[in-house]
Write a structure and sequence with these properties.
The protein has 121 residues and is an alpha/beta fold. It has 2 helices and 6 strands; from the N terminus they run E-H-E-E-H-E-E-E. It has one domain: Macrophage Migration Inhibitory Factor. The strands form 2 sheets. The protein has a 4-stranded mixed β-sheet with strand order 2-1-3-4, covered by helices on one side. Strands 5-6 form a two-stranded antiparallel ribbon. The longest helix is centred in the N-terminal third of the chain and has 19 residues. 18% of the residues are buried.
Length: 121
């Protein structure tokens, strides 16, 4: 159950945004075999004036934060970065240098699902 937050510079078309969401989800499905229905994503658009980034980044710069249950291996995490970046490049011509991904893994006790604390394991 990854929770995905994607931040981009405002001004992209609806088609671009849909392809972006699809590419990130595709990367997660391929990398860690989540179910196709397991899709919890938010796309945040920020005015260029308020999106500070390195001058080497383009207007396609994309920041992705993924919050997920703990327990994935270092290799699985590397696969997440690779698969999402590959899909973004393939579907939207976003260069790998314009992709920034961070994984967050709060302990199970910090997850509340349907009013219940997630059990360890």
């Amino acid at each position: 159950m990854p929770l995905v937050r994607i931040e981009i510079i405002k001004g992209k078309s609806s088609d671009y945004k849909k392809k972006l969401l699809d590419a990130v989800h595709e990367g997660l499905v391929k990398a860690i075999q989540i179910e196709d229905w397991d899709r919890f994503q938010r796309l945040i658009e920020i005015e260029d004036d308020f999106f500070e980034k390195s001058t080497s980044k383009t207007d396609k710069f994309t920041m992705i934060e993924i919050t997920m249950f703990p327990g994935r291996t270092k290799e699985q995490k590397a696969k997440i970065y690779e698969e999402i970046t590959r899909a973004l490049q393939e579907k939207l011509a976003i260069q790998p240098t314009d992709v920034f991904i961070v994984l967050n893994e709060p302990p199970n006790e910090n997850w509340g699902l349907a009013g219940m604390q997630r059990a360890d394991g």
